[in-house]
Amino acid sequence: MNINIQTLDFTAKDDLNEFIKEKVARLGRYLDNIISYEITLRIDKSATNDNKISDIRLVIPGNDLLASSRAETFEKATAQAVDALEKQIEKRKSKDSY
């Protein structure tokens, strides 16, 4: 499993990178055929405080799963995107079981 974290126009601290790796590694409990995780962090130039965006792409056989979230911090945005991916995985598993 390969975790790629890309930041646009800033450098992420080690604490943030470790937090993201821990959060996305949780998804491995739900799906065992994950090839890699691709996380992109960026700051939107908006006037609101919710300007941190986390995009997560799960590379799996077949169609990849994608989630994006916007929040006040990258930690919150990443947690929300991981939650959205968990729901997508559950939905995909229920479709496959039919």
From TrEMBL:
Listed InterPro entries: RHF-like (IPR036567), RHF/RaiA (IPR003489)
Gene3D superfamilies to which the protein is assigned, alphabetical: Ribosome hibernation promotion factor-like (3.30.160.100)
Pfam families named among the record's database cross-references: Ribosomal_S30AE (PF02482)
Name used for this protein in its record: Ribosomal subunit interface protein
